[in-house]
Design goal:
The protein is built from six helices and two strands, in the order ααααββαα. With about 150 residues, it is mainly α.
């Protein structure tokens, strides 16, 4: 074991594996609820980040996404071309441009979220009992605590 690793119980290891696997499958199923051909995963990631975090420069986006700024510049160009994002001069540094989500971009993301949550709600209603849905609510509270811990 390295200095950062600690021994964990079998149940902790199994739970970690199961949560990761189910989370990956759920993400794939949610993506299937809307037309994946509309945006690439990198375009979706950048647009979602801008929506969540607010406007940013291409350099800042690249750092946040963990990719080269040339890649993000291309991604931003595609988003701007589709009217989902736009650029404006940075009022504090006129040499820089800031990228932000347009109203069309916000609407696009909201439609995707609504489609995914609608599919999931209908599926939970159809395939789960009330008790199972309450168990899921309790489990998500635990996951939220872990994420924020």
């Amino acid at each position: 074991m390295t200095g950062n690793e600690q021994a964990v119980s079998e149940t902790a290891a199994q739970a970690a594996h199961e949560v990761r696997v189910v989370y990956s499958r759920l993400r794939r199923r949610l993506r299937e609820t809307y037309d994946r051909a509309e945006l690439t995963p990198s375009q979706t990631s950048v647009l979602s980040r801008l929506d969540k975090d607010g406007e940013a420069s291409v350099v800042d986006l690249a750092a946040a996404e963990g990719v080269r700024h040339q890649s993000v510049a291309s991604t931003v160009g595609a988003l701007v071309e589709r009217g989902l994002a736009d650029r404006r001069r940075d009022p504090e540094d006129g040499r820089r441009q800031l990228v932000h989500v347009t109203e069309s971009g916000h609407a696009f993301l909201e439609d995707r979220r609504r489609a995914g949550e609608g599919w999931l709600a209908r599926t939970l209603e159809k395939q789960c009992t009330e008790e199972e849905r309450r168990t899921l609510l309790a489990a998500t509270a635990v996951l939220e605590r872990i994420v924020n811990g």
